[in-house]
Structure formats: C-alpha cells, structure tokens
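[Q] Does anyone have a clean structure-token version of this?
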Amino acid sequence: MTAPGRRSSTFTRLLRHGFTDPSAAERLLESAELAPIRNDPVLLEALGATADPDLALHGLVRLLEAQPDPAAQRQLLDTVIAAKPLRDRLLGVLGASSALADHLAKHAGDWQALVMYEPRDLHPEVEEFESGLAEATDPVSLRVAYRRCLLSIAARDVCGTTDVAQTAAELADLATATLRAALAIARAAAPEDAGLCRLAVIAMGKCGGHELNYVSDVDVIFVGEAVDGADEGKALRSATKLASHMMRICSETTVEGSIWPVDANLRPEGRNGPLVRTLSSHLAYYQRWAKTWEFQALLKARPVAGDIELGEEYVAAVEPLVWKAAERENFVADVQKMRRRVVENIPVSEVDRQLKLGPGGLRDVEFAVQLLQLVHGRHDASLRSGTTLHALQALAAGGYVGRADAAQLDDAYRFLRSMEHRIQLYRLRRTHLVPEDEADLRRIGRSLGLRADPVAELNREWRRHASVVRRLHEKLFYRPLLDAVAQLAPGEARLSAGAARERLVALGYADPASALRHLEALASGVTRKAAIQRTLLPVLLGWFADSADPDAGLLNFRKVSDALGKTPWYLRLLRDEGAAAENLARVLSAGRLAPDLLMRAPEAVALLGDGDGGTGLEPRSRGHLEQEILAAVGRADDAVQAVTAARGVRRRELFRTAAADIVDSYGTEANPAEADQGALVDRVGAAVSDLTAATLAGTLRAVVREGWGDTLPTRFAIIGMGRFGGHELGYGSDADVVFVHEPRDGVDDHEASAAANRVVEEMRRLLQIPSADPPLLIDADLRPEGKSGPLVRTLKSYEAYYRRWSLVWESQALLRAEVVAGDEDLGRRFIDLVDPLRYPAEGLGEDAVREIRRLKARMESERLPRGADPKLHTKLGPGGLSDVEWTVQLLQLQHAWAEPGLRTTRTREALAAACAAGLIPAEEAAILDEAWVLATRVRNAVMLVRGRAGDTFPSDSRELAAVGRYLGYGPGHAGDMLDAYRRTTRRARGVVEELFYGA
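[A] Here you go.
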C-alpha cells in the first residue's frame, strides 16, 4: 500500500512514459479487462510510444469492453502482447484518433483488420480497397467497410510504414474504390437508368492528383453519353440521377456518419451548370468560355469510376487545351490575380493558424508548382503530373526550379501535409486550422516524432517550414531566370532562353528579351554586388510582376542600380531593410512620375528605408521644409543657385510624397493598403501644398536678397488661392496665388510697385528655368480683373477694387484665400479685408445665386475639351470636382456668416461643417465627399502613371490598368473601375442638381 502523500511507483512510471493524467491511467489499468496484462512492461512501453498514451489506453479499455465475450477479450490481449506489428498498429491508431477508437468500440471485431502484415498489406492499391468494400450493399455498410479500410491506412501512417505522400496516395485510392462502390449501389438501385447511359466519373483536385487528405471534399466531374440507340436527352437525365444518387451515398449522414462530401462544383459553369454533360458539351465550353483557373484545375483530372474508357476519352480531349492555357489572351491577368494570396476571406483570428491558405501554407506550394507546369508543360511532357511532389521533382530535374529550392519546398510540403493529416485524423473532421489547445498540439508533435518538448518543437518546426515556403514562393518563379543569365554553376540544369522568355511573358513582362538583358547586366559575374542582386532580384521581380507595367519596373531598377551601384549603402539598404526593397519595387513600377523624380537624384532611394516600415516616407511639416529651404537659400551665392537648391528640395519631397502615396495605395506584405481613400487624398494635398508654400517662401527670400539685400522697399505677401489655398494641390497642380504689397514708410508708391512687380517676375522666371527639377508654375489669374488686371496690387488698391467693382465670382474665389508666404501681418490684414466679401452678412441675394448658377452652367458647356467623355472628366464632368466644389462654396457663401465651421478654405472640412450644421443630410454629404475624393484620386493617379497632368482616364490599356492598381482594382478590372466611377459621380450629380440648381 502506498503511504499517504506519496506517489505509487506506477504513477511515476506512467509519468515517465508520457501520460499526462497518471491518476486516471492508474484507474484504467486497475480495470478488470486489463488484469491479465496489467504488469506486463511491454504494454506501458507500447503505450508510451504512441502520440497520446492517455488516449491510447482509454481506447484500448473501450475496445476490450466492447468484445462480445471473455474469449474474444483474451484473444485480443494475447495478440496485443505477442504480436508487435499489431500492437504498434492498434495502439498507434488509438493514440492518434479518437474517431477511429469510436469506430472500433462500435465494431469490436474490426481490430482484426490490423493483424495482417503481408507485403500486399503494406502498399495496397485500388484493387485491394475494392476487395475490402466488396460486401457493402448500401450506404451504411459502405461506411463501415470504408472505416475498416481507413484503419489500415492510418495504422501504416502513424507507425511510419508509409510516408505522407504514400498515405495521401492510398487515401486517394480508397476514395476511388469508394466512388466505384457507391456508383455500383446507385446503378443497382436504378437498373433502367444504368442501361440507358455511359457515365464516367473524373476525379479532380487532391483525389485526382493522388494526394488526398484524411477528410476532404472529393472533387469530381461527370461525363455522360447515351448508349447506342438511346435518346441523348433521356440518357443524360438517367446519368444525372445516377450521379446525384452516387453523391448522396457518399455525402449523406447515416447512423454510421458520412464518408466525405462529393463536390461537383469544378464542372463547367459550376453549380449553375448541368451536373452531367456529354464530352462534346464539355469541349465546347472549355474551348469558348473556360477561365484560366479551370484549366489549372484540369491538371489533376483523372478517370476513376464508371465508364473508364469514356473518362480516358475526356482526359485525352481536354489535355491539349490545358497545355495551351498559357497562350490565352487573358492568361497574364489571370495569373496576376491568382498569384496574390487570397486571405481576405479567412477570419483574422485564423490567418496565423491556417495550414492551407495562410501565408507560407500548402496552397502557396501547390499554386506555384501548377503555374510553372502550365507555363512550361506546353513543351515538356515530363512536367505533366497531377501530383504536387512528383511535378516539383520534374521541375527541378528540368532546371525550371532550382534543385536546392525544390528540396526545401519538398521537405516543407511534406511536413505541412503531415501536420494536416494528424490534425484531421484525430476526429476525422475536415479542417486546416492548427489547434490552440496545448493537449492537441502535444499529441500532434509526438505523432511527428517530436518527443523532448512536443509543443515548442512543433511550433518551431511549423514556423520554420512556413517561413521557407513564404520565402521561396515568389523566388521559385524568378531564381531560375537569374541562373539562366548568370551562368555561375557549369553542368547544373537551367532554363533555356526560350523557357526563360516563356516564363517572363506568363508573369506579365511584355518585352522578355529586354528583361533578360537587364537581368544579365544586374546579376552576372562573381562580384559582391552581383551576388546581392541575385539575392534581391527574385523577390523584386515578383513585386514588379504584381504591377501593371513590370517591364518599366525592371528597367527603372536597372537605372537606379547603375546610378547607385558603387555606393556602399544602396544594396545594403535593400538587402537588410525589407521595407526598402518592397517600397522601391512598388514605386518603380507604378508609373512615370516617381521614377522620373528619383532618377534626377537617385540618392533619394534612402527615404524608402528609414526605420521600421519605411517611416522616412512620412511627410514633413511646413515649418521643417521652410527651415531647410531658407537655410539652403542662405548658403547660396546668388538667386539662381538659391532657387535651384529650393527646387532640389521640392523634387526630393515630391518623390517622398509620391512614394508614400503609392506604397499606401498598393499596400505591402507587412501593411495592407490604406482603406481610407479620403485620408490618402488629404495627405497628398497637405504635403504638396506645404511644399509649394515653402518653395515660394525660399524663392521670395532669394529674389529679395539678390535685388535689395535684407529688406524689400515694400511689404510683400503671397496669398494662396484655389486648390493651393485649400491645401488640396495635386502632383500636377499650378500654384494659384494673388500678390499683395504695401510700401514701407517713406518709400515712393511707384518705387514700391516696381519692386513688387520685379519680385513676381523674377520668382516666376527662376521657378521655370529648364533643369532636372520639375518647374513650379505660378498662376495669378484669380486676381481682380483676371489677366487684364495688374499682377500686384497694394492692400489699399484691393480695398478700393473690392468695395466698388467686386463680382460674385471673385467672392467665390476668395473662399480659398489663405496666406502662404511673405509678410504675415500684411497677409492677415488682406484676409481681414476679404472676409466680409466671402462670408457676406445674411448670405447671398437671389440675383447673386442666379449668377453663380449661370456661370457654372456656362463653364460646363464651354470649357469641356472637345472629344472628351463628360462622364469620365474628373474636373468638369457631372458629379466631378467642379460640381462638388461649387455646391460646397455656394453653401459657404450663403451660410458661413452664421456658421463659423464653414469658414474654411478646405472642401471636405466645409462639407463636413455643412452636414454638422444641418444644411445637408449626412447621406448626401457622404455621396459628395466620396465623389470628390474619387475624382481627386483619379487625377493624382493619372499624374503618377503618365508623368503629366490630366483630367480624364488614360486611353492606353497599360496606363489605365496602372490607374486601376493605384485605386485598388486588380488585373483585368479596369472596366469595373470605370463603372464604379460613373456610378459614384452619377449619384453625386443627383445631389448637386438638388442642392446647387434647386432641381
């Protein structure tokens, strides 16, 4: 008897053998059923070798209890102790699968299926499984027979007799035998239908690829034909009945549960199409309507049941179409869509636990292999395997994938599939999620041979293999391209020039010959620089291919690398800071503006990698910009040199702003695209407006210092107007301003006016001198009297003009007036002067409102460019910028005198204030805001993509696609983008008709 407080020796031994609940295990060992072998050391050793000793012991006791009589119990116990193969198999299954333990407890004699240990039992094929299912005559008996066969597969798996690939193949063979048995039951139930038709069952997906899971949908396609002399319509109806019955036999839940769902949704037209088609109907669909993913699915098509001859005819007929898929017009766009990992539909809480669909998951390997098969299988029949690991080996043997990469992927795929098998085996449930419970993780880890610290080791190995897949997923496409051009390892199998071109075309490169030349220039040789490029390029090429113009991305990268290749920090930055490399790839392939700005001063690439996540792209405040520009101006020898320095800062900051906008719009692997489109517009508008103000301040300082020293004879201020005053400048916007001056005490008016005019003329000249930096155009047309009026006025002149001559359009223009540079006190007094004009007491009279509406209508009819589609014109089209801004400005002119929130130069702020004041319903305000934001985004996108300003969508398909990518539309969705724009602006125009025109 064990003394109180002391543990028994059995308790200690149980702990040593891996039991987690030794007390419960002791009680089970004391059960009468185990009395004959309770003290046999073989039993504890065998239980300790299982994945879950507690589960195995509990299952063994249940199995013994289920035996019909003491003799049956004795037979089972004797066999367990005396026959090591059975002991390992039985206890291995009981310790890995509670579902199969349940089956054995219910069917107490089925343990004898594990006694056989003949060579033919080690690697059974379809015929052996058909024999095991032969006595099944209904859905219930079929389920029992299926589980009995599954027992033997699971036993070989957990004991290591078969590896994961062999186990998956056996599961596929068992599925094949089961489909045949189910079809036989269906045919026996409807002999008349069976006599009218030929029905072939084509396995797809993992079953077709000979790589099935323990619990998975079995994907199939049905092909039917009439027997000789039968009516085709009747025959197809009969075939459909048989196919439907066969699916129900496998899928429906009975007293013995279900087997697995049979899924026919990969058929032409999916669930909307007929369940059974003739061969000619299948071919007609694939030749005319099929999408790239459907040909990808057909890679695994294999006839498994029914009329095998008809099934083989089907495979032979569709196979040529599969290998021509890469020649289809939309193949590149489809590939780009498929290459982006689809994780949006996975709940956030599950992404990190997804073995199949998460980053670095099984789908990444399978997709990569299938894509390479489609590209290169056209000319190399050795690649035409439906099994992932066989195809991966063939790709490596042919040089289409690096051997080391293929070996690492093979290892990772096997480990991930083994994890998936063990997770599903436990309860025989379809899942791809790694459990969170520690006991589950411990059982999985031990089943995979991780015994020291199963949970920690499992997590470590899982993360390591997922990281390998994630790292190699994109490189798999591109590393062989570099090997092909670098020629570093003589005798190694590598891509031919033709195969390299094929792959580049499939990945979106329009000029593969030039792309290969760029790769050769970048990656050839044995220098350290070339070695780093060979490390970087596989990933960069994938990011380029994710854009609308991969060729431009690669060309621009070569230009930047040529310019900076000798600097010690450039390649180190890209190699060591992941954000820098990805940000650079996005920027170089998104259009012309950002690369053009970068090429003029390539060292600005350093902005892409400052700190974690590329915080060097954060916009700088106006104060910091002005401080830097004024310091540069102070160091310059003359005005030309000073303004050149200011323009250099402006170019760098424009690049910073454009790069941040592109990165935020595209998103990165670490940070998804910014969802708030309004925030993106506000950031660009504020950054470009602040930069323009700082540039004008520096230019003004340079001109004054050059001509007059420290003090100009007249006080001078620059007032921002239009989008500049509203902090809404885009990349291609001019700076709308008016100039005001006030002679200093004792200075003659004529001298002051001459000085002020000279300052303006010199500023405009210096900011437009041809150079490597983009010009800054100053537009003063919003001054009193427009182009006919004086370029600069005194404050008193403005006061006299506005008191006597001011027109309603000028009051409207002054809504955007804000001091941006020069004498702050003078600027503030100018604002005080115009406030009563732009915020008139009691609002506008009816005549003024009618005049504004008349001006707007005339502008719409006269200023729209000839040939432009009004519905796609972002500025003047219905629901565009002009519509929204004039509507908001009319509300300001009418109500700002009473509503302080409306006294702002910014469109979105004024719109929000009008909504808050109850002047416009929230829903209508949201419609106007959405349209204004979208139109502004399109204008910014056009400038980024084309390198020049524009108010309409580009006509060139690549440029249009690039605008779409910036706006968040994937490849092939430019039409959706245009439809969404029309829809958004149409709704906005409806609000404008009501609010502005009073319709």
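[Q] Thanks! Anything notable?
[A] The radius of gyration is 37 Å.
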